[in-house]
């Protein structure tokens, strides 16, 4: 992925220790990482993906896979703790994420955050997992989730606006329902909520629109590198707010919203339009083209974070070797071992396949077997 903007300016972020307590299938486990690339191996169901998810938690304060934090507590226990030590240049910082009594606490060097949005983006990471296919196949919420996971790392304000927007949206929808039930007019309260919704939603729209202007080109260059096919790919942004300002939109849709009992226009309906050679990707692309596109999308996400943060994020690769053909696998290896990439975690059921893949980079590679009871020190 040759791009001069990707030349390192800051030393990479490095997760050197990870400690898990009652997180998913883990009881107590400690790991020490000391190489750029960590292969995580073990049989199916051993906890490889769970380990990646624990690292993701430290970065995003939530799971990549499940929306509900309690699902990540080890069965028959009452809470979990994830602790990680990150080093950057000479300094090291400890991040902890604890769920106990239904309350989640995230702390940096033992100081808890009041808003998790202050943490997200400080330890940037990108996950690439088999389930990512839903970004193409699933509903618009999957594509918004992808975009949000990127933009909230780039701009702390983005996440703050988004969280507040979603709260106000719920209040507005509840008001519409309550008024219909009681057969009363929503009155001034709806005006106030509309003002607040517009104030939070408009900046989210601007962040998305301005980011997506360049992102399509970045995805194209990653796609070219991976597939070498000369095909064109593009990403379009579809938003109700492209047509009108948010206050006008809310006003003109008010009657409809009162009938539907929900807010029918806004950034919560935004979508991304993926195209391959000018046609809708979802319906026209082959499986291989979709895989390449998804991979390009994630690598472009990595590149965007890297350029913005001036340091390479952590890269979490789940089960990737199962999915890639030989040529793409070789390109992946030469990419992640190069200077543009920082610390990489990669899972595989076949320890031998990983060793073979990185045999020319032994000095960069360490392997851990999550099925082994031994705790790394
Ligand atoms: N809350 C939980 N408590 C205990 N175990 C859990 C919990 N959630 C998931 N598991 C267990 O974690 C295991 C799955 O772990 P994971 O997905 O990390 O496996 P994996 O090594 O990545 O497997 P594969 O190679 O099949 O992808 C399953 O055995 C599942 O039962």
TrEMBL record:
Where ATP binds, per the record, is at 42-49
**Xref: Pfam families:** SMC_N
Against SMART domains, the record matches this protein to: AAA
Q: Where is the signal peptide?
A: none
Q: State its location(s).
A: Cytoplasm
The record's section on InterPro entries has: AAA+_ATPase, DNA-binding_RecF, DNA-binding_RecF_CS, P-loop_NTPase, RecF/RecN/SMC_N, RecF_2
Principal localisation: cytoplasm
The record's keywords, sorted A to Z, are:
ATP-binding, Cytoplasm, DNA damage, DNA repair, DNA replication, DNA-binding, Nucleotide-binding, SOS response
What are the residue boundaries of the AAA+ ATPase domain, all occurrences included?
Answer: 34-369
Q: Which domain of life is it from?
A: Bacteria
* SUPFAM superfamilies associated with the record: P-loop containing nucleoside triphosphate hydrolases
Coiled coil spans: none
Q: Give the protein's biological function.
A: The RecF protein is involved in DNA metabolism; it is required for DNA replication and normal SOS inducibility. RecF binds preferentially to single-stranded, linear DNA. It also seems to bind ATP.
Q: Which family does it belong to?
A: Belongs to the RecF family.
What name has this protein been given in UniProt?
DNA replication and repair protein RecF
Please state the gene responsible for encoding this protein. recF
